[in-house]
Amino acid sequence: MEPATDEAGATPHVHTRVKRDFWDKLQILVQPMGGLFTALAIGVLGFKSSEFLDRRQAAETNTRLYSELMSRREESESALRKDMFQTIIGSFVSASDKGDLNTGVLNLELLVYNFHESLNLKPLFLDLKRRIARGAATAPNASVRADYVDYMNRLERVARETGRKQVIVLEGVGRKFDRTVDLTVDPEGTSLEEAALTLDSLQATIGIDIVSVDRVNKEIDVELTVETPDPALGRQTKTATFQVSYFDFPMIDNTRLIGGYRCAIVLNNFSDYSADLTFVMFPGEYASLKEKPYYSEVIESVRRENARDK
C-alpha cells in the first residue's frame, strides 16, 4: 500500500510527538537557570575574593604597623638602658671613690637586675665583696660590723636570685640536674654522681669532681668532665677546671661544647653543712649577648634546623 499524496503529488509530513521522560523535563526547567547560577557564582566568587584581599591587606598593614611599633619600642628601650647604664656605672664609680658601700651595693643591684644577661658583673661583685670584707675587719664596734654583714647578705642575695632566674630560663630550652656536696667532711677529691643528658642530637655524660672548697669565701673549685659521642672521631672528652661561686652566672660563665651547645655550673646555696650545685646544658644562642657564636656553630645550627624540618 503506497502512502497518500497531496494534489501536487508530494507526500505530506507527518508530525510525530516525542514522549519526554522526567530528566528531559528537568533539563528544560533547569537550562534557563544555568546562566543565572553562573552569574551568581561569579558574583559570590568576586565578593569572596575581594573580601580575602581586603583581609590580607589589613593583616599586612597591621603586621607592618606592629613591626614599626616594636622597632620604635626597642629603640626607645635601648636608649633608656644606655642612659641608665651610664648613670648607674658613673654613680657606682663615684661611690667607690668615696667609699660609700650602701650606694655601691644599691647601684650594683640596679646593674644586675637590668643588665645581668649581657654584662659580666662578677668583677664588680668581687670588688664590693673585698671592700665589705676590709670594712668588716676594721669595724670599730658590733653595730658597724652588723652593717657590713647586711651589705654582704644583700650582695649574695641578689647574686643567688639572678643565678636562679637564669637557670629557670635555660632549663626551659635545655637540660639540668642538681647535686649536693657534703661539707660535714672534707670533700676534696670527691666525685659526684654522673648524669647522662640528651639535648636534641647531643648526648653527654657529665662528671663533676670537687677539687677544693673555700669555706670563708664560699667558693668551690670543680673539675668538669663532659663525654660526648662523635660519629667520625669516636667518643670525645672535654675537661675544664674552674671556680664556682654565687657570682658566676650561667649565661655569662659557661663552657662551650660541640655543636654550639653550652654548659655551666651554678652555686645555689652554701652553708656549713652542704653546698647545692646545679648543672645546666643549653643551646649556644641562649648565652649572653657578648658571646658571639663561631661560624661553624651557626652552620651546624642551620643544619640541625633543616634536618628537624625534614
Give structural notes.
This protein is of the alpha+beta class. It has helices at 22-98, 101-115, 122-137, 142-173, 295-309; strands spanning 175-182, 195-199, 202-214, 219-230, 234-244, 255-256, 261-270, 274-283. Strands 1-8-7-6 form a four-stranded antiparallel beta sheet, with helices on one face. Strands 2-3-4-5 form a four-stranded antiparallel beta sheet, with no helix packed on it. The protein contains five helices and eight strands. A hairpin with a 3-residue loop joins strand 4 (219-230) and strand 5 (234-244). It has a domain at 101-309. The termini are far apart. Helices cover 50% and strands 23% of the residues. It is elongated.
Secondary structure blueprint with pairings:
Elements: H1 22-98, H2 101-115, H3 122-137, H4 142-173, E1 175-182, E2 195-199, E3 202-214, E4 219-230, E5 234-244, E6 255-256, E7 261-270, E8 274-283, H5 295-309
Antiparallel strand pairs: 1-8, 2-3, 3-4, 4-5, 6-7, 7-8
Helix pairs in contact: 1-2, 2-3, 2-4, 3-4
What structural category arises from helix and sheet content? alpha+beta
Poorly predicted runs:
none
Largest sheet: 4 strands, antiparallel
The arrangement of helices and strands along the chain is HHHHEEEEEEEEH
* Percent range of helical residues: 40-55%
- Please tally the helical runs, counting DSSP H or I stretches of 4 or more residues: 5
Distance separating the two termini: 86 Å
Brief synopsis:
It contains five helices and eight strands; from the N terminus they run ααααββββββββα. It is of the alpha+beta class.
